[in-house]
Amino acid sequence: MADTRDREVMGWELFGDATRALAQLVADSGYEPNIILAVARGGLLPAAAIAYALGVKNVFTVNVEFYTGLDQRLDFPVMLPALLDVVDLAGAHVLVADDVADTGATLKLVTDFCADHVADVRCAVLYEKPGSAVKCEFVWRRTALWVNFPWSARPPVVPGKPHPEGEALLPHT
Predict the structure, then answer these.
(1) Is 91 left (phi over 0), alpha (psi -120 to 50) or beta?
(2) 120 lies in a domain?
(3) CATH number, domain with residue 92
(4) Do the Cβ atoms of 97 and 50 come closer than 8 Å?
């Protein structure tokens, strides 16, 4: 097993508790978003969990590429197609959801994109790092460590290679 002393490790159960607590922070603040905007890919699951917890049915996605590997990133984040239609955002109260505010560059790109089109935009993240250029309004935990999330801690599956912890279940025929 890998040494995780120098990392935050979030398992699925902690993820559930953390997103619920994060949604509670939003609710307790009085902020009532009518759109949750997920920053894909890391923000997809937090956004869905927060949307359910807040009872918000309008969930949008923006695809941003910044990280290319473990602690490796592009020089700057890039929005990927398909881009949001700003007409859908007009006048909305938007909660941007992501897994982590590391440098803050991704969140800055997304909030700057939204700023001219929405009534209000705020950010909710599971983790915020001290060097983030964006200080999020809603943060579950602050850390300087690398974070292992349950959805990205393992390598992608490949055809014909069994799961290391046991054989995959075969589909019913």
Answers:
(1) left
(2) yes
(3) 3.40.50.2020
(4) yes
* Under 8 Å between Cβ of 73 and 88: no
Residue 125: which domain range? 11-148
Q: Could you tell me the pTM of the whole model? A: 0.83
Q: What is the pLDDT of residues 6-54, one digit of tens each?
A: 899 999 999 999 999 999 999 999 999 999 999 988 999 999 999 999 9
**90 or 121: whose pLDDT is higher?**
121
Instruction: Write down how long the chain is.
Output: 173
User: For residue 69, which amino acid is it?
Assistant: G
Rg value, the chain, Cα: 17
| DSSP structural state of residue 47 | H
Euclidean distance between CA atoms 29 and 24, whole angstroms: 8
- The residue assigned the tokens 């200080």 is 135
Residues 6+ apart with CB under 8 A from 17: none
